[in-house]
Amino acid sequence: QVQLVESGGGLVQAGGSLRLSCAASGRSFSRYSMGWFRQAPGKEREFVAAVHWSGGRINYADSVKGRFTISRDNAKNTVYLQMNSLKPEDTAVYYCAADPSLPTLSLGINVEYWGQGTQVTVSS
Predict the structure, then answer these.
(1) How is the beta sheet containing 68-73 ordered, strand by strand?
(2) Which residues contact 110 (CB under 8 A, 6 or more apart)?
(3) Do β-strands 118-123 and 10-13 pair in parallel, antiparallel, or remain unpaired?
(4) Helix, strand, or coil here: 110?
(5) 75-88 pLDDT, tens digit each
(6) Can you give the pLDDT of all 124 residues of the chain as single tens digits?
């Protein structure tokens, strides 16, 4: 069992930055690919970014490429999402997710573990 707890959300002005953290507890964190998804009001949940358990492969949604950076610290059982140049359309609840498979995680289908989410609001 893996438990995921997100933190770092909040209210920021357009153009600003936030860093989200996801602390994992439980077994074998270092063998799980980790990712971030988001869901805006009235919209479906969408993929944001994911990193392989080794840190060697990273996927990003086109909408965040060049602005967001995902990273992980296996020693701290934590994955991060650095979000720069934020836009009002980035406003959403951001969810951390974990799965042994990076392709499965990136598709967001049958992902093994989810966090409870953290709200990010970007004002214009």
Answers:
(1) 2-7, 18-26, 78-83, 68-73
(2) 104
(3) parallel
(4) coil
(5) 999 999 999 999 99
(6) 789 999 999 999 999 999 999 999 987 788 899 999 999 999 999 999 999 988 899 999 999 999 999 999 999 999 999 999 999 999 999 999 999 999 999 999 899 999 999 999 999 9
Cα-to-chain-centroid distance, residue 105: 11
**The pair of three-digit structure tokens given for residue 97, joined into one six-digit string:** 């997710």
Residues across the chain = 124
Distance, CA of 79 to CA of 35 (rounded, Å): 8
